[in-house]
Every structure is written in C-alpha cells, then in structure tokens.
UniProtKB/TrEMBL annotation:
The keyword Ribonucleoprotein applies. This is 30S ribosomal protein S27ae. The lineage of its organism: Archaea, Methanobacteriati, Thermoplasmatota, Candidatus Poseidoniia, Candidatus Poseidoniales. It comes from Candidatus Thalassarchaeum betae. GO terms for cellular component: ribonucleoprotein complex; ribosome. One of its GO terms (biological process) is translation. Keywords: Ribonucleoprotein, Ribosomal protein, Zinc.
Amino acid sequence: MGDGPNPNGKHSKYSVEDGELVRKGEFCPSCGPGVFLGVHEDRKVCGKCGHSAPSE
C-alpha cells in the first residue's frame, strides 16, 4: 500500500474547529449538503447524480 492516509480521502473534507465540525468540501447543488463534488483537473463532478461544473 502507500505511505500513510490518502491526502484526498474523506478525512481531508472535514475538520474540527472550536469543538464544531467544519465541512471543507464543495457540496453538490442538486443533491445538497453531505454529497461532495469530486474535484478533477478540468471539472467538478457529483458521483451520486452526475452533476458537472467547470473547475475554477
């Protein structure tokens, strides 16, 4: 396997600040909170519904 956790894994989408859970990823506008968009080189894509948007 690799050397440690995947830097793009689920744990990288969350952090805890002042005892509060903070979601750092961008949500799918169609599916809503809890479904993150996958960030690719040229686009952002929802793995659940297939929504696609150009990457910034």
